[in-house]
């Protein structure tokens, strides 16, 4: 049946809801190949229809349907991957872990860089003067200035903006200003305890 | 935060909509179609004969139906007798068995402008309206163990609604416990770590 490979590509994304599977270059190539074959057959039938044999028109319609279906599968595959990459910027920050980077193809990596740049430019523009508003922080309304955090992994030394150096050992508890820890908590290095 | 929401009105990029339209429906070809005999797997002909009954994937149907190349036989769960079952008591019906995408496919079928379209649409709305109350109720008041049994009879749309209800209940509980101000690890980061941990330990 037509467009089986296309649906397989899309199903790859459906199965992997919370991570990005490696870019399936092979799958994309196969779908494009099927589209090319369908298109060539359609061209042949369409030109014979123009020449007078009108019985091939129905086949043209069906193949065209299959072409549109393949196109939709490819577009959805690419679009949904890009949406997930955008989400990655908000969850992981502007630097992605290397194993996730390995799953992204080159144009998608370029998209990520440009998206990060766009986001940074926007955040800079809504501040006043040289102060830029970091939208990825304070996702929940803050309740206090200092928070109690526990370190989950051996991180080493961490320097806060005021210059204090904090040694983050596994399971150590610290009382730190909220703004300094938000990024580390989001990345899972620190854990907010109440 | 950019978020890809589940949309139940079919959106061109919706993964779910693409996958659900792969379901096979029974169609009759009103005209002969040369060279595409491979669509009919029971016959061994290079061409499709006029009048042949073929199981086609649903995504082909809207165009072919509009151009009068095929006539669709309404999938059995949307026919009169099944609609009557729903009218009698929709709450006990196992909609997951009737098609995991009962409402979505029903809407696609009804939009084809068939004789039964209006009745199908009315039946879909009535069914959802009748079942909704129990779904809402269950999503707010059930424990983890009962959930599996409850959602077994729900179709995908209802399962999404159930999930939303549960999430809202959990958020409320979190707020009552004053944990809503607690900063959490980003969801993607947490699942990434879990997966890495699983890979290393295996």
Number of strands of chain A: 5
N-to-C order of helices and strands of chain B: HEEHEHHHHHH
Spans of at least 5 consecutive residues with low confidence of chain A: none
Shape of chain B: extended
Unreliable stretches of chain B (pLDDT < 50, length at least 5) are none
Gap from first CA to last CA of chain B = 34 Å
* Series of H and E elements of chain A: HHHHHEEEEHE
Strand order of the largest sheet of chain B: 2-1-3
Summarize the main sheet of chain B.
3 strands, antiparallel
The percentage of residues in β strands of chain B lies in 5-15%
In whole angstroms, how far apart are the ends of chain A? 57 Å
Task: Determine Rg of chain B (CA atoms, Å).
Answer: 22 Å
Structural class of chain A: mainly alpha
Rounded radius of gyration of chain A (Å):
25 Å
Judging by the overall fold, what is the CATH architecture of the domain at 75-181 in chain B? Up-down Bundle
Subunit structure (chain A): Component of the GINS complex.
Family (chain A): Belongs to the GINS1/PSF1 family.
Keywords (chain A): Chromosome, DNA replication, Nucleus
InterPro entries (chain A): GINS_A, GINS_bundle-like_dom_sf, GINS_Psf1, PSF1_C
List the helices and strands and how they pair.
The complex is a heterodimer of chains A (194) and B (202).
Chain A: H1 4-15, H2 25-50, H3 57-92, H4 98-101, H5 106-126, E1 146-151, E2 156-159, E3 165-168, E4 173-177, H6 178-186, E5 190-192
Helix pairs in contact in A: 1-2, 1-3, 2-3, 3-5
Chain B: H1 15-20, E1 24-29, E2 53-57, H2 61-66, E3 70-72, H3 80-88, H4 102-110, H5 117-141, H6 144-152, H7 156-176, H8 187-201
Antiparallel strand pairs in B: 1-2, 1-3
Helix pairs in contact in B: 4-5, 5-7
Main location (chain A): nucleus
Keywords (chain A): Chromosome, DNA replication, Nucleus
Pfam families (chain A): PSF1_C, Sld5
């Amino acid at each position: 049946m037509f467009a089986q490979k296309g649906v397989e590509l899309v199903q790859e994304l459906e199965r992997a809801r919370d991570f990005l599977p490696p870019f399936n270059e092979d799958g994309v190539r196969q779908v494009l190949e099927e589209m090319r074959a369908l298109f060539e057959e359609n061209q042949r039938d369409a030109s014979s229809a123009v020449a007078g044999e009108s019985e091939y028109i129905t086949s043209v319609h069906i193949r065209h349907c299959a072409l549109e279906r393949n196109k939709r599968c490819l577009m959805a595959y690419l679009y949904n991957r890009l949406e997930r990459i955008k989400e990655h910027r908000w969850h992981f920050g502007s630097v992605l872990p290397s194993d996730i980077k390995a799953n992204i193809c080159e144009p998608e990596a370029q998209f990520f860089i440009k998206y990060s740049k766009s986001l940074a430019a926007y955040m800079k523009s809504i501040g006043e003067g040289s102060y830029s508003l970091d939208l990825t922080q304070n996702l929940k309304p803050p309740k206090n200035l200092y928070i109690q955090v526990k370190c989950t992994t051996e991180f080493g030394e961490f320097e806060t903006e005021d210059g204090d150096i904090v040694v983050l050992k596994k399971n150590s508890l610290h009382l730190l200003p909220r703004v300094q820890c938000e990024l580390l908590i989001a990345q899972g290095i620190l854990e907010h305890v109440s | 935060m950019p978020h890809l929401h589940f949309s139940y009105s079919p959106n061109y990029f919706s993964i779910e909509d693409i996958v659900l339209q792969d379901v096979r429906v029974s169609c009759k070809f009103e005209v002969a179609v040369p060279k595409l005999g491979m669509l009919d797997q029971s016959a061994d002909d290079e061409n499709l004969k006029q009048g042949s009954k073929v199981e086609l994937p649903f995504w082909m149907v809207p165009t072919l139906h509009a151009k009068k190349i095929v006539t669709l036989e309404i999938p059995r769960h949307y026919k009169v007798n099944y609609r009557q079952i729903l009218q009698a008591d929709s709450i006990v019906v196992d909609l997951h068995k009737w098609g995991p995408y009962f409402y979505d496919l029903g809407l696609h079928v009804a939009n084809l402008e068939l004789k039964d379209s209006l009745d199908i649409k009315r039946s879909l709305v009535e069914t959802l309206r009748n079942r909704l109350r129990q779904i809402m109720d269950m999503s707010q008041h059930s424990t983890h163990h009962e959930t599996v049994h409850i959602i077994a009879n729900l179709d995908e749309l209802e399962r999404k609604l159930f999930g939303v209800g549960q999430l809202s209940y959990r958020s409320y509980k979190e707020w009552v416990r004053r944990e809503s101000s607690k900063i959490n690890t980003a969801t993607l980061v947490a699942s990434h770590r879990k997966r890495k941990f699983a890979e290393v330990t295996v």
